[in-house]
Design goal:
Blueprint lengths: L5 E4 L3 E5 L9 H5 L19 H8 L7 E5 L14 E4 L5 E10 L5 E10 L23
Antiparallel strand pairs: 1-2, 2-3, 4-5, 5-6
The structure holds FE2/S2 (inorganic) cluster (FES).
The site of FE2/S2 (inorganic) cluster has 12 residues, from loops.
């Protein structure tokens, strides 16, 4: 079965929403409610903020459920193929963007492509991945 992918455009940027990837970290609607409001339908208002602000917020999505492409591009934004980007989110996960092959504690191999959030706080119920639980514990490192 095909995964759901929704797109919302403001004429400049296309917000791409993949609900299957969402870990409900809630950065989007807590930090930019003018655009992301889960109480509204549709829940994404691409005209609620500037294109620059929307892109900045999408880059903070820890799961990769939100991504974007510019309206004049045919494919989603591509990063340089050989660079793996790592960002430590204060009080949150370790974000790694790139192609990953992960071996978990049960020797299970998981492949990821795009943005992956790894738990740093120890509270995730889906380790090694972040599930948003850092918001429920005292973790601000
Ligand atoms: S860092 Fe997000 S659940 Fe631990």
């Amino acid at each position: 079965m095909d995964k759901i992918i929704k797109e919302y455009s403001n004429g400049e940027v296309v917000i791409i929403w993949k609900p299957d990837l969402c870990i409900h970290a809630a950065f989007c609607w807590k930090e930019l409610p003018e655009v992301f409001d889960p109480k509204k339908r549709p829940w994404v208002n691409p005209k609620g903020a500037t294109t620059e602000r929307i892109i900045e917020q999408i880059k903070r999505c820890p799961s990769g459920a939100l991504s974007y492409r510019m309206e004049n591009e045919k494919q989603p934004e591509k990063k340089q193929e050989n660079i793996t980007e790592v960002e430590v989110i204060k009080g949150g996960p370790l974000m790694i963007r790139g192609q990953l092959k992960i071996t978990d504690t049960n020797e299970k191999i998981i492949t990821k492509n795009g943005l992956t959030a790894f738990c740093r706080c120890g509270a995730s119920k889906n380790k090694p991945f972040c599930d948003g639980s850092h918001q429920t514990v005292d973790f601000d490192e």
